[in-house]
Design a protein that fits this description.
By secondary structure, this protein is of the alpha+beta class. The protein folds into two domains: 188 residues, FAD/NAD(P)-binding domain; 214 residues, D-Amino Acid Oxidase, subunit A, domain 2 (D-Amino Acid Oxidase, Chain A, domain 2). It contains ten helices and 18 strands. Strands 3, 4, 5, 6, 11, 12, 13, 14, 15 and 16 form a ten-stranded mixed sheet that branches. The protein starts with 13 loop residues before the first strand and ends with a helix. The protein binds flavin-adenine dinucleotide (FAD).
Length: 424
């Protein structure tokens, strides 16, 4: 990658300026530059150091979306899980998940069998174009005996057996984020970390410049761009207001615990006593339990309190009674504010559908806000965001090839070759 050079940001105007260097901003920069747009990106801290660092590393295939009958979201998740295995096979790994089936209409074998049939149909091309070693087997039901063997401590009352499905784990998720940054850089995008957007400058109502601060020197600079894309993650609401948009982004705190507890070979899924589904996933010699989210909207950016962590430890032990989790096992707390969906009369929940808002609708043309909901689907969101930006630019741009172009250093062959070279 090019060394950090703030002066390159002043060599605008750019077609597109991205604010925020998490997985969404970096994917947008990669998508835009690969499709021929002159692109810059500023990140207030390290690339990928926000929520894109704090996640549970599962490339979800959309089973959750099926539960709410959101077929489009489920299909997109399956497609994007496959895209990750195509463009970054080195960084993903098939991971089996197991959940208990119970004497119940919604959690019983019949319901899961039907769900898996639908999933198999929606995901019939899930392995197309993927290295054989990364093919995902079909989901299946397990006997009660096998479930007890694979899921020690599972709640046994009314247990009829289990169900097993596969997703990918993004084992090296930070390297995956950096591979996207490296791809954007290779396509000519100017990426600069430790530069924070502080003000939008408008000409005749249109956002044409962003004032930013170099956080290393304190120097203020101006970046000119025809379209500014706000991909500031949990700060997207603040940045949208700065750009003149009316988009509000309610937030919920979400958390995982990385623990020193020896991992099992399979990931386990089970509900807390309040019915919230948690997963326990093996990762690099540790076990990660997550994802808990708060019941009320976040009002501050302060991380979790000791009481929040203790509550989560209790819930994790309810869901996984054999875990024996205590505070001493916790080696890292993944925590972040994620976008929430708010509906009258209902508790806030995680936002299910990404937002791409052209602020021309708010009287602030030249600016777009992007709010993603999953690391897994960031590429697809970026593809749509760049298409929206091309409409604002009034320019036809090249077709997207990001779902099939292998990221730098992410191919299986690269690493095999390197290992052979090193051995020589
Ligand atoms: C606990 C937890 C577990 C999760 N587990 C999973 C999972 O297993 N699988 C999955 O697919 N998804 C998961 N997610 C969701 C996923 O992590 C997020 O959807 C995704 O990482 C968000 O990426 P982002 O780029 O939008 O935000 P971020 O990664 O937060 O990036 C936004 C960036 O914008 C920068 N920024 C903010 N303001 C400015 C400014 N003014 N100027 C310049 N830069 C600015 C910030 O510094 C930040 O780096 C999880 C989320 C959480 C919190």
């Amino acid at each position: 990658m090019q060394p950090r050079d703030v002066s390159r940001l002043e060599a605008g105007p750019f077609d597109l300026l991205v604010i925020g260097g998490g997985i969404h901003g970096l994917s947008i920069a990669c998508e835009a530059s690969s499709r021929g747009l002159r692109t810059a990106l500023i990140e207030a801290a390290d690339f990928g150091s926000g929520i894109s660092f704090n996640h549970q590393k599962t490339a979800h295939g959309g089973l959750r979306s099926l539960q709410s009958l959101s077929f489009d979201l489920a299909r997109e998740a399956i497609r994007e899980r496959r895209a990750l295995a195509r463009i970054a096979p080195w960084f993903v790994h098939p991971l089996p998940f197991i959940v208990g089936t119970y004497r119940s209409v919604t959690k019983g074998r019949l319901a899961l069998r039907a769900g898996f049939k639908l999933d198999a149909w929606l995901g019939r091309d899930r392995n197309a174009g993927i290295e054989r070693e990364l093919h995902l087997p079909p989901a299946k039901l397990l006997s009660r005996g096998m479930t007890l063997k694979l899921f020690p401590g599972i709640r046994q009352k009314d247990l009829t057996g289990g169900a097993q499905w596969y997703d990918y784990q993004m084992v090296e998720n930070d390297r995956l984020t950096f591979a996207v940054a490296a791809a954007a850089d290779a396509h000519g995008a100017v990426l600069v970390s430790y530069v924070e957007a502080i003000e939008a400058v408008r000409e005749a109502g249109r956002v044409t410049e962003i004032s930013a601060r170099d956080r290393e020197t304190g120097r203020q600079l101006t970046i000119r761009a025809t379209v500014t894309v706000n991909a500031a993650g949990s700060r997207a609401g603040d940045v949208a207001r700065m750009l003149g948009g009316s988009q509000t982004v309610p937030l919920l705190a979400a958390m995982n615990l990385v623990t020193s507890i020896a991992p099992r070979e399979v990931a386990l899924a089970a509900p807390t006593s309040a019915g919230r589904m948690l997963t326990l996933v093996p990762w690099k010699g540790c076990s990660i339990v997550g994802t808990a989210h708060a019941d009320a909207l976040a009002t501050t950016e302060t991380g979790p309190s000791t009481a929040d962590i203790d509550t989560f430890v209790r819930e994790a032990n309810e869901a996984f009674p054999a875990l024996g989790l205590s505070r001493e096992h916790i080696t890292l707390v993944h925590w972040g504010l994620v976008a929430a969906a708010v509906a009258p009369g209902k508790p806030p929940d995680l936002l299910g559908t990404p937002i791409i808002r052209d602020h021309a609708k708010d009287g602030a043309p030249g600016a777009i806000t992007v709010v993603g909901v999953k690391y897994t689907t960031a590429r697809a969101v970026a593809e749509r965001a760049v298409s929206a930006a091309s409409s604002v630019l009034g320019r036809r741009i090249r077709r997207s090839r990001s779902a099939s172009t292998v990221l730098p250093g992410a191919a299986l062959a690269d690493h095999e070759g390197l290992a052979i070279e090193t051995a020589r």
